[in-house]
Specification:
By secondary structure, this protein is mainly α. Helix content is about 75%, strand content about 0%. The protein has helices spanning about 5-35, 40-45, 50-60, 65-75, 80-90, 100-105, 110-120, 125-150, 165-180, 180-200, 205-210, 210-225. Helix 5 (about 80-90) runs parallel beside helix 7 (about 110-120). It is found in: Cell membrane.
Length: about 230
Amino acid sequence: MDKLELKQGIRDAIPIVLGYLPLGFAFGVLAKDVGMTVAQATMMSVLCFTGAGQYIAIGIMKAGGAVITIILANILVNLRYLLFSASMVPYLKDRVPPFIASLLSYGLTDETYAVGMSRYRKQAATSSYMAGLNLTAHLGWIVSTLLGALLGGLIDNTERLGVGFALPAMYTCLLVLMVRRKSDLIVAAAAAAVCLAAGQLVPAMMTNLSNLILATIAGATLGVIINGRC
């Protein structure tokens, strides 16, 4: 275990944790509101660790939907991680043991992916850095969920806290870190356009987030074409 790499991973995870705190807290509040116990809400964040998927689960539970619906919706929403993890292989191969990488990849999220890729483009990937980054981010999500579930009964309207800006702001900052060339900006703009167009043309897609999958595939394809890679 490289202590310097571990500490760097923890430091790089702090902005992510700050973004997770209001979101995880709000999830804990909503989970309590639909009848989940503090333990159930917290364990969901421990075992699932997918913000979008967890919020979808809460919405389906509130609407009285079936468990299979929650499972299928989460599979669809999280398909994008297949693309994320595939794009990380060239950086991790021969640097991080496959078994360790598989374990640490449980903490892969949109945010840890963006921060990790930004790091790997400049520094060689290490299991210590991955552990510091992914485990710290996951711990932040768990703790914020626990706090939300514990204090949920004291809050009757989470919108009054004004935390709705946290997720968009965090994604915007991560995008800025990833854009290094004109081609990156073109790909990002194209992916955003596809996402918005899909949401407008087929409104139901905004519910299951499959428009994000389409945008991801479109952006990745355009990126390959622009950079002339196969």
